[in-house]
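Think of the structure tokens as a kind of shorthand, similar to the way a musician reads notation: each symbol stands for something richer, in this case the local conformation of the backbone. In the example below we present two proteins back to back. Begin with the first one, reading the sequence and then the tokens, and try to describe in your own words what changes along the chain.
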Amino acid sequence: MASEGYHEEGLPEDVKDFHRGIVSLMEELEAIDWYGQRVAACTDEALRAILAHNRAEEIEHAAMTLEWLRRKDPTFDQQLRTVLFSDRPITAIEEAATGKAGGEPAAGANTGSLAIGSLRK
């Protein structure tokens, strides 16, 4: 299963909805993977076409859910706007956005992150 459920009690509805969106995206991505494997292994051309069609539908669902998550969370919005739809190497995009190779922010950069790296200062 993609998720064990909530890790805290008494969560507000918007947090529960965001969790639902994340879990749904995970399930759609898993379905895309499964259909991809079935398409690759299938020996019947008609069935392969159906499975490929089903995989495309799951990709559509994943894209819709990802867009919903982007609209609900400013950090998702920022990151997706930074990384998606570029022809540059992905790590070069990250380096340009953070000012440092490997994704670590440049010294003194205020990223607003509460990641472990931000706690080391």
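Once you have a description of the first chain, move to the second and do the same.
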Amino acid sequence: MAKRLTESELAERALTERDLQRAVGRMFRSVGFAAAHHYDSRFSDPGTRGMPDLVVIGHGYFFQVELKRRGGRLSDEQIEWAHESERAGVDYYVIYPKDWDVLVQLAEDRSGKSVPAELRQFPTPARKRRKTKPKSGTPAG
């Protein structure tokens, strides 16, 4: 018999990497960090392939965050980027949805501020808008 997933496991599964990236950026910005998202480096020139999802700076800190969906793995380029970042003394974090509390704690520890209560909660998936077809005889518009 298959194991039933808990509510938190179902929420982790439903959350896209994009939803997670937006929530992480919002959470870091709420305590005074600047968080920049790099466009999808899989489709960029070879020099930026593997670049992490977020670059975060503020409060005397600079670090990089790679976000992964539950069960996601780092590509070879991402592993190389992490290795070179750490070699250069730049902290590099790989964050999965299950790590949300660790990430909130990191933001609070490094900023010296409390993350607002509404951003402390694990993010919920963004609702997708349903595309509706115009009724026949009605101009689309």
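Compare your description with these statements about the second chain. The mean pLDDT is 83.
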